Amino acid sequence: MTSTGNAVQANYDLAFDLYPYARVADQDACVRHPVVVVGGGPVGLTLALDLGRRGTPVVVLDDHAGPGQGSKAICFAKRTLDIAHRLGAAAPMMDKGIVWSRGRVFHGDGQLFQFDLQPEPGDRHPAFINLQQPYFEQAMVKAIRREQAAGAPIEIRGGNRVTGLEVRDDHARLEVDTPDGPYSLEADYLIACDGARSPLRKMMGLGFDGRVFEDNFLIADVRMSADFPTERWFWFQPPFKDSGQSALLHKQPDDVWRIDFQLGSDIVREVELQDDRVRARVDAMLSSQTGEVPAYDLVWTSIYRFQCRRMRQFRHGPVFFAGDSAHQVSPFGARGANSGVQDAENLAWKLDLVVKGKAGQPLLDSYHTERAFAADENILNSSRSTDFMTPKTDASRLFRDAVLDLAGRYAFARPLVNSGRLSVPCVYEAHHGFGPDDFDGPVKTRPGSACCDGPLGNGFLLDALTDGFTVLTLGQANLSVPGLAHLHIERPTAEVAARFLGDAPGAVYLIRPDHHILARWAETTPDAVLAAVARATGQEGFHAPEA
Amino acid sequence: MPLKLDPNLSDPDGAYDLLIAAHDGLDKAQSDALNARLILILANHIGDLDILSEALQAARAAG
User: Which residues of A touch B32 (CB under 8 A)?
Assistant: First the structure.
């Protein structure tokens, strides 16, 4: 830590010193900002970068000077990489990250099956990369520094801890502690990206609805130069000693391996975190593969329990909750950080339009409607995975074991094996304001879905979309709409045709600033396209219904 | 296609005999496990979640 005062004590050691405390003029007077983000994790940084690139001023407050030690989220999905690429932050992630596609599922000594997450042909990004969360944050901050140099109105204030919050109808007032003492600031919009234990949520007296799972999981990150393949290995009832009901082995950059053990509900945390206890488990796992224990270092250990739950409302007047502060899931689907980044991108363009007076409040309400729907989908998937991995009743265990017994022998049972359903982007529904769908086209590109990538010229389709609304026309359909960006693909490649046209000769797609498909038509008029934009931006009396 | 709750087995006694005989020599835990595997195999064969749901309701209602 570079901070020297007693006011802001560090809670953890830093992985990187990215935004050390520095005094700013604001600290002498209470200044009102359009948008203040609390929390400089993956969600807060994505939001700040997206807003700043759009020209909306944003201040990020974080009580540390960078990410803490520990890998935390390690698995970033294609959708997240597409978002990071749009924001100019993906290159260092792809350079550093480990691409993986194969998973193996074991039951005891035997392999049940393997799966391959093949990249879609013609897509820029693979299904997943593994990358320690601090590297993700480092890449985001690097992109923010570049945008700042180009004039983007983004400010990150490290060593700034929020200690008080007053929420009014049209703004929020924050009390902030710094090494130079406290100051106040105000925000038209305040975004809480301050994690699962969100201090802002607590200051507002808000809670969660959902389930807490009592099982404890031990994370051990070990560094070793072992010859395991770059695959996700998951064991049900692992054969190695004291490894609990399930175990996971997954490779990260820097020769680090993530190992997870399910310890059960009845443990003494401090005892299980002792180095010799952790090493005994890791030794047993690693020697079960190679016959001997390879040399390794323990890089990071942690014990966690998890929840599958969310806040009832993600918006409270001028205050919005995003990422773990709003919703939590088990880690086995890589749905935590990945869904948080999607929260950020969902909110960024909406805040930008509203702050600039180009859209009304209902557009901001749609943040809750859409992202609560996404959170529910993640919670459902996560709860189902958890129920499979840790059966809660005799009947549940009976069926779980029956599935595992069948899966080694019969293909039909393999899709029933649930070691985590890996993150895919949410498809929003028509009642969220998406549509019309006046085109009998491929399901993959129906309104509500995230726009697919595909080869375009020497590049990729997603790169040709703008940060605003884009009218995409293909084949025989060709329609220019005044005031909207237009991309026409006269002769789409086979991949693009299969994803956007099917057998049809042409189609018109309307794509939102977050690259979700808003509507599509076999053919249409400029007025119909503009009406869809107006509906989606909270004009013409559009009201997002409650979920 | 709705769930069939009218007689559909060509040889009811033979079918019943098959189900009982499959459990010969198994203890309670093994029998329970066999039943669970059988249900999963049959559920996959049916394939249709509506029919499965109707069957589950019918089974619960009769108990």
Answer: 398
